[in-house]
């Protein structure tokens, strides 16, 4: 089985879907690995290191020729996959609910029309067995960390309390909204930097996690239907009554905060709006908000993907692809997720992975020329 590792085509994407470490492991499984020249450059992995790990390194045509598996961080443009084997697997974050050129339904349809089997790694089920294959977790963790550093980078004050001969600098107050994988890491990072941290979520199970990290939980209480946990541990959309109570709570709290990190997502739906322009206006000038959900519609009114904008004296940071801003670590973890996935299903006799269980059903978008994933058919 030949595995092709492509140089990413999306603007601003510095990550790579395989590292010399995972190439070596694929070779040990009996796979042949081809890497497109320069694929790892953005993440500081040199062509020579891939070659030393056992890969052939060449241009795109040579890389794809006869490949049965094509690895990407983001889904490659189907029009650029000429030479891959018929029915080749495209294994990447395919962003099927996204809009624009690096995802979306039209691209999934194009994979199907070309006869590829497209496997969307972000559809990995949240089961213990699949944890090591979960790109959402590995990338969100880094994004949560980087979001706090990005906030610190544009905040005109220090995070920790400092007592100096010239007087005392008070600790920054950081509020984390959405305590999933990214939010937990944001809390931990802000705490390490010495901030006073509070956090909120719709899933009440997160209260204990917030406390265990030394932060203060801020929760809507006494509203019917407050349990916002849906299937697979993901959040659900909340009732109108809850949203109103949450808005009041946020308004009271946010006016006293210096930094807000928002991470709230609902799979397959636009991100919930957590901060309105009017709420923003109550924050102190010089405060900073980082909206990690900006590419899914944004948690913060006025956030712009790819930009840092200022409203009412508050900076709103809307970087895209935040995990990709740490390309070396993000690639290392992403690559291991892909290796863990393919090696788990590797059939020694067949010399390739065979995907025939619930994990395959969850991630497979297309097969035999058709879109087959229930999440795209309903
Ligand atoms: P996510 O990225 O989908 O969402 C981020 C957070 O935003 C979630 O905690 C969600 O509850 C919260 N949120 C949504 N709407 C909100 C609102 N209106 N107000 C406030 N917060 C809101 O979540 P995630 O990071 O992917 O994690 C979701 C859960 O899945 C967590 O419990 C996580 O530990 C679990 N998980 C399990 C596995 C596994 O078992 N394989 C892997 C990854 C995550």
Automatic annotation (TrEMBL):
Residues 4-143 form the Alanine dehydrogenase/pyridine nucleotide transhydrogenase N-terminal domain. GO terms for cellular component: plasma membrane. Belongs to the AlaDH/PNT family. PANTHER family: NAD(P) TRANSHYDROGENASE (PTHR10160), PROTON-TRANSLOCATING NAD(P)(+) TRANSHYDROGENASE (PTHR10160:SF19). One of its GO terms (biological process) is NADPH regeneration. The keyword Ubl conjugation does not apply. One of its GO terms (molecular function) is proton-translocating NAD(P)+ transhydrogenase activity. Its EC number is 7.1.1.1. It catalyses: NAD(+) + NADPH + H(+)(in) = NADH + NADP(+) + H(+)(out). Keywords: NAD, NADP, Nucleotide-binding, Translocase. This is proton-translocating NAD(P)(+) transhydrogenase. Residues 152-318 form the Alanine dehydrogenase/pyridine nucleotide transhydrogenase NAD(H)-binding domain. InterPro entries: Ala_DH/PNT_CS2, AlaDH/PNT_N, AlaDH/PNT_NAD(H)-bd, NAD(P)-bd_dom_sf.
């Amino acid at each position: 089985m030949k595995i092709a590792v492509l140089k990413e085509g999306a603007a601003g994407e510095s990550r790579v879907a395989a590292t010399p470490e995972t190439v070596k492991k694929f070779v040990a499984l009996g796979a042949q690995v081809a890497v497109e020249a320069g694929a790892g450059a953005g993440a500081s992995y040199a062509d020579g290191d891939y070659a030393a790990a056992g890969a052939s390194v060449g241009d795109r045509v040579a890389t794809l020729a006869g490949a049965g598996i094509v690895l990407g961080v983001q889904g490659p443009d189907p029009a650029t996959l000429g030479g891959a084997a018929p029915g080749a697997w495209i294994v990447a974050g395919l962003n099927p609910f996204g809009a624009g050129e690096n995802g979306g339904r039209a691209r999934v349809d194009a994979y199907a029309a070309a006869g590829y089997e497209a496997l969307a790694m972000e559809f990995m089920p949240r089961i213990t067995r699949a944890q090591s294959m979960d790109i959402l977790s590995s990338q969100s963790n880094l994004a949560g960390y980087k979001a706090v550093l990005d906030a610190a980078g544009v905040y005109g004050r220090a995070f920790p309390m400092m007592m100096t001969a010239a007087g005392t600098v008070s600790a920054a107050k950081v509020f984390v909204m959405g305590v999933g994988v990214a939010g937990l890491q944001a809390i931990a990072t802000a705490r390490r930097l010495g901030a006073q941290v509070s956090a909120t979520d719709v899933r009440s199970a997160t209260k204990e996690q917030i406390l265990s990290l030394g932060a203060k939980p801020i929760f809507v209480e006494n509203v019917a239907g407050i349990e916002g946990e849906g299937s697979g541990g993901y959040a659900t959309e909340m009732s109108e009554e809850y949203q109103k109570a949450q808005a009041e709570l946020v308004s009271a709290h946010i006016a006293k905060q210096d930094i807000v990190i928002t991470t709230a997502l609902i799979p397959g739906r636009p991100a919930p709006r957590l901060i309105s322009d009017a709420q923003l206006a109550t924050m102190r000038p010089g405060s900073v908000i980082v909206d990690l959900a900006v590419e899914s519609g944004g948690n913060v009114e006025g956030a712009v993907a790819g930009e840092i904008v200022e409203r009412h004296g508050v900076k709103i940071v809307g970087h895209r692809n935040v995990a990709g801003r740490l390309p070396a670590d993000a690639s290392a973890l992403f690559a291991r997720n892909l290796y863990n996935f393919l090696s788990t299903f590797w059939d020694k006799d067949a010399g390739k992975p065979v995907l025939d269980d619930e994990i395959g059903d969850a991630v497979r978008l297309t097969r035999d020329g058709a879109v087959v994933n229930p999440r795209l058919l309903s």
